[in-house]
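R.M. (postdoc): so does anyone remember the format we settled on? I'll just put the structure tokens first.
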């Protein structure tokens, strides 16, 4: 899933070089390309390996979020969430949306029961944070499993990844050179409207190419897909920026050189996954 980072987000465009914000652009590109190759190989040779990669990435992301929340006095059941996230991904792939929702509901109820013996102090805070983590990471990621289970599932997942990566790449290329007007200065000061335009252009081109060449669809569905992903991916970036500001952390982790943590690389993908699923499930077949 972390292939998103084949291009840094527009938000990081001005801080990609070492010495500006501690980012190592060469390392970031190398890691992004390596992850992209690993994901593509898993899709081509063994689908179950792709699901395992997603489950591992989401599990690490949940661990990162639990650690960040713990520093602010919030306790979440990391092991339970990881098990539940694996169940959601498997449920989505083998049982579809209804099973995904049922597994989420079950994990939420178990999480509440897990917290009850510790008493009322911080109960709402801990349970709310747990449910947020479960919905934000594994539930949204499970839409990638739904894409994989559909007709031409591999092509759908590749479309999802390529179009989302195009958003980040386009945003970086344009934002780094032409970015002048802040998009959301109170949330992410370095993200610009020019960068967003680059994201939209990159998504439009990638969307049309993927829909026409991989999915045998009509070109305008690719434009719709590109527009929706550009908005969703940007929203995902901004949402995670708010989370990190609230938790007072720069990055969720430091596992990936030049990137930060796994959660820092999933933000756009998590937001884009359900959007891509909706377009390819309800718009593409009727175009």
């Amino acid at each position: 899933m972390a292939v998103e980072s084949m291009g840094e987000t527009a938000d990081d465009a001005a801080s990609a070089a070492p010495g500006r914000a501690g980012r190592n652009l060469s390392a970031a590109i190398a890691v992004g390309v390596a992850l992209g190759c690993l994901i593509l190989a898993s899709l081509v040779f063994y689908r179950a390996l792709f699901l395992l990669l997603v489950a591992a990435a989401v599990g690490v992301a949940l661990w990162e979020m639990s650690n960040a929340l713990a520093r602010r006095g919030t306790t979440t059941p990391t092991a339970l969430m990881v098990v539940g996230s694996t169940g959601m991904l498997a449920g989505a792939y083998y049982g579809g949306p209804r099973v995904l929702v049922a597994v989420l509901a079950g994990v939420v109820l178990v999480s509440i029961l897990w917290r009850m013996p510790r008493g009322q102090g911080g109960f709402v805070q801990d349970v709310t944070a747990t449910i947020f983590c479960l919905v934000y990471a594994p539930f949204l990621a499970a839409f990638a499993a739904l894409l994989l289970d559909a007709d031409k599932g591999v092509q759908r997942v590749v479309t999802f990844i390529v179009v989302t990566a195009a958003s980040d790449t386009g945003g970086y290329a344009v934002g780094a050179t032409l970015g002048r007007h802040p998009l959301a200065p109170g949330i992410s000061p370095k993200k610009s409207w020019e960068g967003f335009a680059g994201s939209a252009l990159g998504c439009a081109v990638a969307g049309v190419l993927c829909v026409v060449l991989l999915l045998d669809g009509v070109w305008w569905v690719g434009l719709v897909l590109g527009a929706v992903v550009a908005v969703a991916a940007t929203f995902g970036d901004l949402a995670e920026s708010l989370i990190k500001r609230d938790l007072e952390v720069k990055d969720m982790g430091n596992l990936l050189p030049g990137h930060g943590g796994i959660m820092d690389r999933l933000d756009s993908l998590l937001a884009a996954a359900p959007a891509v699923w909706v377009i390819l499930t309800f718009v593409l077949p009727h175009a």
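R.M.: ...and that's the designed sequence above, right after the tokens. Also worth knowing: The CA atoms of residues 8 and 168 lie 6 Å apart. The radius of gyration is 18 Å.
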